[in-house]
Automatic annotation (TrEMBL):
<dbReference type="Pfam" id="PF02142">
    <property type="entry name" value="MGS"/>
</dbReference>
<feature type="binding site">
    <location>
        <position position="8"/>
    </location>
    <ligand>
        <name>substrate</name>
    </ligand>
</feature>
<protein>
    <recommendedName>
        <fullName>Methylglyoxal synthase</fullName>
        <ecNumber>4.2.3.3</ecNumber>
    </recommendedName>
</protein>
<comment type="function">
    <text>Catalyzes the formation of methylglyoxal from dihydroxyacetone phosphate.</text>
</comment>
<feature type="binding site">
    <location>
        <begin position="34"/>
        <end position="37"/>
    </location>
    <ligand>
        <name>substrate</name>
    </ligand>
</feature>
<feature type="binding site">
    <location>
        <begin position="54"/>
        <end position="55"/>
    </location>
    <ligand>
        <name>substrate</name>
    </ligand>
</feature>
<feature type="binding site">
    <location>
        <position position="12"/>
    </location>
    <ligand>
        <name>substrate</name>
    </ligand>
</feature>
<comment type="similarity">
    <text>Belongs to the methylglyoxal synthase family.</text>
</comment>
<feature type="active site" description="Proton donor/acceptor">
    <location>
        <position position="60"/>
    </location>
</feature>
<dbReference type="InterPro" id="IPR011607">
    <property type="entry name" value="MGS-like_dom"/>
</dbReference>
<dbReference type="InterPro" id="IPR036914">
    <property type="entry name" value="MGS-like_dom_sf"/>
</dbReference>
<dbReference type="InterPro" id="IPR004363">
    <property type="entry name" value="Methylgl_synth"/>
</dbReference>
<dbReference type="GO" id="GO:0008929">
    <property type="term" value="F:methylglyoxal synthase activity"/>
</dbReference>
<feature type="binding site">
    <location>
        <position position="87"/>
    </location>
    <ligand>
        <name>substrate</name>
    </ligand>
</feature>
<dbReference type="InterPro" id="IPR018148">
    <property type="entry name" value="Methylglyoxal_synth_AS"/>
</dbReference>
<keyword id="KW-0456">Lyase</keyword>
<feature type="domain" description="MGS-like">
    <location>
        <begin position="1"/>
        <end position="140"/>
    </location>
</feature>
Length: 140
């Protein structure tokens, strides 16, 4: 599976803890992240990550582009709901595209753990079928 990891600044420590706790599961998958999130995770774990630009500089949009091209299967986006972001439209666009393309999306640690455990248990295997299809299942 192809998984995107994104965290706003106040959630980056939490993201590193999540990535550390679930490193054996995450290590089996292809990982993407926005710039600073990816840098932190790679500095503090042995995970290999393809880093996009930093979120405020277009990284959220790059992740959104991966979604729109059927190149992502899951998004873990630990958002800060209490701080205004300069790139709020990009944040909303990423969340919107996840819904447009039915990509499993966690926006907090509780759901993130459920998704990662579900991934391990095979609950997301349906994504492999979609990945194997030449045409998208929905006409978008
Ligand atoms: O801003 C972000 C998500 O909206 C995250 O970007 P960074 O990982 O570069 O901090």
């Amino acid at each position: 599976m192809r998984i995107a990891l994104i965290a706003h600044d106040s959630k980056k420590d939490l993201m590193v803890k999540l990535a550390t706790a679930y490193e054996p599961i995450l290590a089996e998958h292809k990982l993407y992240a926005t710039g600073t999130t990816g840098k932190r995770i790679m500095a503090e774990t042995d995970l290999k990550i393809t880093r996009m630009k930093s979120g405020p500089l277009g990284g959220d949009q790059q992740i959104g582009a991966l979604i729109s091209e059927n190149n992502l299967d899951m998004v873990i986006f630990l958002r800060d709901p209490l701080t205004a972001q300069p790139h709020e439209p990009d944040v909303n666009a990423l969340i919107r595209l996840s819904d447009v393309y039915e990509i499993p999306l966690a926006t907090n640690i509780g759901t993130a753990e459920m998704l990662l455990r579900g991934l391990k248990a095979g609950f997301l295997d349906w994504r492999d079928m979609i990945g194997a299809m030449k045409e998208r299942p929905i006409n978008l």
